[in-house]
Hints:
Layout: E1 10-14, E2 18-23, E3 26-31, E4 37-42, H1 45-55, H2 83-90, H3 96-103, E5 110-115, E6 121-126, E7 131-137, E8 142-144, E9 154-158, E10 163-168, E11 180-182, E12 189-190, H4 208-218, E13 229-230, E14 235-239, E15 244-252, E16 255-262, E17 266-271, E18 279-284, E19 290-294, E20 302-307, E21 311-316, E22 321-327, E23 337-343, E24 349-356, E25 361-369, E26 376-383, E27 388-394, E28 400-407, E29 412-419, E30 424-430, E31 453-459, E32 462-465, H5 475-481, H6 490-494
Antiparallel strand pairs: 1-2, 2-3, 3-4, 5-6, 6-7, 7-8, 7-11, 9-10, 10-14, 12-13, 15-16, 16-17, 17-18, 19-20, 20-21, 21-22, 23-24, 25-26, 26-27, 27-28, 29-30, 30-31, 31-32
Amino acid sequence: MRKHRVPYQCIQKCGTNTLIAGRGSSIDCFNLEDGSLSSTWKCPVKDIIQKTKSDSCTDIPQGISSPSPPTKKRKISGEAEDSWTAEAKNGKKANARSNAITTSLETPAVTTLTVTHNGQHVIAITGEDKSIRVFKWDGSGLGNDHLVQINNSTILSADKFGDVYALPLLEPKLLGDQGTLSSDSTSTTQTISKAFVPAANNLTIHSMRNRKALENQKRQTNQHAGKPAPTFEYKLLLGHVSMLTDIVLADLDGRDYIITADRDEHIRISRGIPQAYVIEAFCLGHGEFVSRLCIPKERPDLLISGGGDNALFLWSWATGRLISTISISSCFEKFNTRLETSLGENNAPVSQNPTSKKIAVSGIYHHRESEQQSPTDIIIVTCEGVPAIATFILTSENRLKHLQTLELAGNVLDIIINNSPDQNSVVVSVDSFHRPGSTAERRDDSEEVIKPLLSFQFQDRMLVEQNLFDLERNGDVIKHYSTQVTVANLPSLLYNLENLRKKDDGLEDE
């Protein structure tokens, strides 16, 4: 009986021939020349234990003159109830995020990977412990950086509240031993007691009872330091009034820009640092959430966007002008339909009607094919829960033309394009755990195990599969894939874009 393992939820290229892949809570490094596994980093358990203790609520003694009631006691031990038991007792669905934290404290999943422009550092975000980890890349594996300090190196980080912050790539004085930059971590934060200042004053209260309460509050010299403040410097750059979904940096005519997209169908064009608060334009036209943005490297004046709509949008982003759109529903029609059974008398099935699932664009990538006499710009598009890749040509007239739809053995999770001098290849991470076309139904153990990483090359503008990541040829990869990895709520880790879609009746999910 075969066991289908956790796939690679995110991948990135580092240097000239290295693939960085996040699988559960670990990060693997592959050689792109022969597909061999070179090294693996795993999140230390002690980081999570420290994180849990710092985030846990403790009982704070309340004095007689305290203006607030005693805090409620919370269970902070590992004896958490099972989510199904809690659901049965409370009569309602347990919170998914709380379940993820209580069941997977020792394995915070890597949700995002990125690499600095100089290729010297790898940045990983682990969502469950709300941390940004910075690694030094030495050409053979990941190592936590304690020695190198780079001036004018900044991380732009966006949160679910719509705010974008500027953080240092490396702290002036690194603390801890894991290279973690975390707003909640005990290794990078300090507790500061400050003078207590009541929010009320004699002008805002009138009753005798409230005045006595105010006098009691003034007698307090210090207040309890709540959430520890980060010791590194960070700056708020800009903010949306909705959940931010993607961010890209642009450079046009010698000026820097920050382009952000949100759940409320907006694409915002802001100036770069330090004037990020200045809005230059908006790209308005989407009817659903915007999930992905892409600026072709060789054509920096154009922006391609996609999301919950059935189309791709091509913009002149500097002016906010919509140039053209192209429908992508027909490209994925074969993989994006399902059968709905109509019931007759006594709930007997009478017919099956094919209906189309809604599209959620999960990736937009640009590749310049230079083998022809004139360079060709190719746009690669993937959708959530769809086992296929669609390619388009970006014409000189600023139009997108459908080129190919390639069916794969599993749902596409992430893509990197390897534009090295030796080869122009595309590496695809596919879902080896769930059935193709499904975001919840897992594969049967009797089914054949598929490779979680696939490699393709462009031949005459068409993608043709290579045999780079060969499980039979690479014994170390076979051994590595056989290692069981436990990640709580795997479907929500791999597939979360549909949660951005608003209900048809205008009510959003809680």
